[in-house]
Amino acid sequence: MEQSYRDGYTFVTSTGDTISGIRSYIGKKTRLRGKLSFERSIAIHGLFEGIIHTQGLIYVLEGARLTADVEANTIIVAGAIEGNITANEYLDILPSAQIQGSIRAMKLRICDGAIVEGNCEVITVSHV
Q: Does residue 110 form part of some domain?
């Protein structure tokens, strides 16, 4: 991970994709509980319990654990999520991901090695 205050954080995923312009970051040793609602993008490396809603991107890094309902335009998961996921544009489930819950997405990629337990629904209209 590289950091630049002006341009946000940049990450390279295990599949070689680059994610840039992430403005907020929840660190590896951080534990949060509650409701997060915001317009921009966030990367989560710690523990979170509750509800997350954004019009931007959520990147759940490997090692992160969420017990939460998550809704965003784009969601990239390398960590663990227990809860319902709604990606109004794109959901990318990377090889290290572990998901337990219902998935709703307009576009979906599940990489080999990912563990997904739950229902999957393709949606056609954005709900954010």
A: yes
Q: Assess if residue 61 is contained within a domain.
A: yes
Which uninterrupted H or E stretch holds 80?
strand 80-82
- Phi and psi for 20 in degrees, rounded to 5? -125, 165
Give how many domains the chain has, as a whole number. 1
Domain housing 66 = 2-122
pLDDT, tens digit only, all 128 positions of the chain: 444 445 667 787 777 777 877 888 899 999 999 999 988 899 999 999 999 999 999 999 999 999 999 999 999 999 999 999 999 999 999 999 999 999 999 999 999 999 999 999 999 865 55
> Per the structure block, which two tokens stand in for 74?
């784009």
The answer to whether position 128 is within a domain reads no
